[in-house]
Structure formats: structure tokens, C-alpha cells
Amino acid sequence: MQFADFRAELDDGRLSIVQAPIFLHRSPSIGKISSLAEILAQIGFADPQLLGPVVRAWERLIGKVQPSVILSDAAPSLNIAASGRLPVIVIGNGWTVPPDRAELPPLLATGDASQIKLASAHILDAVERVAKRNIVHFPALLRGVANYICTLKMLDPYNFCRDEALHWSPEIEPPSKDAVPSRDMVLIYLPMKHPAIQPLIKVAHAVPMQQYAYFGGARYPETGNLQVSPTPIDFRAEVPGCRLIVHHGGLGTALQALVQGVPQIICPADLEKSLIATAISASGAGAVLTFPISSQNVATAIQRALACPSQPPSLSELVTRSPQETLTSLLSTSNGLR
Fold it and tell me: According to the model, what pLDDT value does residue 333 have?
């Protein structure tokens, strides 16, 4: 969806939609990545010449809107611009809201702790030079005065060192108490040009049930049992009736499938999604397809997944708050904070 279409759909007179400042250029690649700090460094957060225009654009926007509180979701450049000026409430997940620690460990066994530390130091130096703010350590860029981390413990890459409460994700429908009439569909959800698309299309005829796919809006020839949607799929409506979900490792998709007890096949293409895929596989709730992806290994993975039922996780993993402690309550106070 283009920004103009998004704004036209949601701007109803009560909610004003504006384009967020973005990085127009990227820093050179730094090789193998095993942390969020390295990703942000490669985006441009470690380069004052790239970071400066983005932070200043946020500062101008804040000056124009004059908010009393900011609700931020995976927006470190906004957090930098607002730091020391306005209270920031962060809502995110285990990946986008790391624990408040001086140093974060590598998220891969092959990660280089010294490279992560160096990337973090370069980012903090750039922030100080651009915004004249001394951020004590890297995770503080991604955190606010209140932090709502919406995920399951098993999908939090920092579950081994986090001591904060986790919350129910607002985008995930809790499992219905009503019995599902049938689970007779394979749901496929992949971004445009994902390398698993063609192998999936080739083996579609051999899958013994209807398949409903979304390939980032791209159109592909349909077969007798493969329907390709040009628009995003309504997960809340479709997932409960699925026998299997094939996707690229997005957290929302993984959570929805886990909660509904639907087996997953994940084809991850970046670090965050690889971590999600590894956690799903370790829990027994799905399988991971690694590159290169062939028709043969796709067919084998689907056959195995259809034969293995998946159980939803224990909902006791999630902590919910009282009505007085919700985001709505926080934002309804005079200054956004208690």
C-alpha cells in the first residue's frame, strides 16, 4: 500500500496521518550481522551525516504537532528527537525493545561481541554529535519511560536476560472457545520476490487441500487448488481454519499461528525472522526452510507439517494489566504519565 492510500484509508478527521522521516541513504555493509545495533549502524544511525537530517526532521514535526506524549513503535530516530523533551511510551516486541542493560550479547552463536560493542559505541557517538544528548547505553535508544513488550516468552530473543512483564499483542486474536468446524486449508504469506514462492507454486498441485496465498501483492498464475490474493489476508478470519501456515517469519504471523495451534513452515530472510523461526522449530510448533529453497524440500516440509499437529502455547506466559494500567489510561492523563 502506498502512503497516500494508507492516509486516505485511515485519516478520518480524528487521526491525522503524516509521512515519518526516513533515511534516504544507507551506510556501507558491515558483513555478517548478529545484533540490532549492527542493523541500525548499517541503516545509518552510526553516521552523523545520515542520522542528522532524520532527527532534525522529527524535531520539526514534533515542534509543529506539539504533542504532550509520544507513543513510539520501533522508531529509534523519533526517540532520539524526543529524548529529554517529551515522555515517550514504547510499544513493541522482544526484538524492538531490548532489555535495559549496559551491553547486549550476540543473538547468534557466531556473533562477535566486540563488533556489537563497537557498533553500539559508534551509534551513541553519532547521537551525541547530532542531538547533543548523552544516551547512557544502546538499548536506551529503543526504550521509553514506559515499555509495553508484546510477545510470548518463547519468541523473545532476550528471554534469557529479561525480567520485565510481557503483554498480549493488540494485533493477535485470542483463541476462540468455540470448536473450529474444519482445518482444511494451507495459508501462504510471503513478501514479493521471496525465493520460496516459485517452489511453492510448483508443488501446489501435490498438496492435498486448498491453498490460499498472498505474495506481497504480486500476481501469479493460479492452479486448481492454489488461490493467490492481491490484497493482504485477514489473519483473524482465516488462521483458525488453517491446517498449516507457510510464511517468512513475521512475529504477528508466528504469534497468530501459535495461539491458534496451527503448524508453521518458516522461510526466514533476515536476523529477526531467523530468530523467530529457530524458536518455533525448537518448540516443536513448526519447521524452518533454509536457503537454497527447492521444490523438493518445500514438498517434504509440507508433507511432514501436515502430519504433525501443533499445540497452542500456555497463555499463562503472558501478563495482562488491570484496566487502570492500560495504554489508554496512560495516554488519557494530562501528561501521558502517572
Answer: 52
3-state secondary structure of 177: coil
Start-end of H helices in the chain: 3-10, 36-40, 48-65, 76-82, 113-131, 197-203, 235-238, 251-260, 271-283, 295-306, 327-332
- Tell me the range of 11-20, 118-127, 202-211 where mean pLDDT is highest: 118-127
Cα angle: 52, vertex 53, 59; to 5 degrees: 90
Region 116-120: what's the mean pLDDT?
Answer: 91
Q: What domains lie within the chain, and their CATH numbers?
A: 3-168+322-332 (3.40.50), 185-314 (3.40.50.2000)
Residue pointed to by grid coordinates 549502524: 41
Are the C-beta atoms of residues 178 and 273 closer than 8 Å to each other? Answer: no
DSSP one-letter code for 288: E
Whether residue 183 is predicted with pLDDT greater than 70 in this model: the reply is: yes
Amino acid at 46: A
CA atoms within 13 A on the CB side of 147: 24
Q: How confident is the model at residue 138 (pLDDT cuts 50, 70, 90)?
A: very high
User: Does the model's pTM come out above 0.90?
Assistant: no
Amino acid at 162: R
Half-sphere exposure for 27 (CA within 13 Å, toward CB) = 19
Using one digit for the tens of pLDDT, what is the confidence trace for 326-335? 555 555 553 4
d(CA 180, CA 6): 33
Q: Which of 206, 197, 212 is nearest to 303 (CA)?
A: 206
Cis status, amide bond into 292, omega within 30 of 0: yes
Residue 249 region, left (φ>0) first, then alpha (ψ -120 to 50), else beta?
A: left
Q: Which candidate, 153, 148, 233, places its Cα nearest to that of 190? A: 233
Instruction: Write the pLDDT tens digit of every residue in 52-66.
Output: 999 999 999 999 999
Which of 125-130's residues contact partners 24+ apart within 8 Å by CB, and which partners? 125/46, 126/45, 126/46, 126/47, 126/48, 126/51, 127/45, 127/51, 127/80, 129/48, 130/48, 130/51, 130/52, 130/55, 130/80
Contact in structure between 144 and 87 (CB atoms under 8 Å): yes
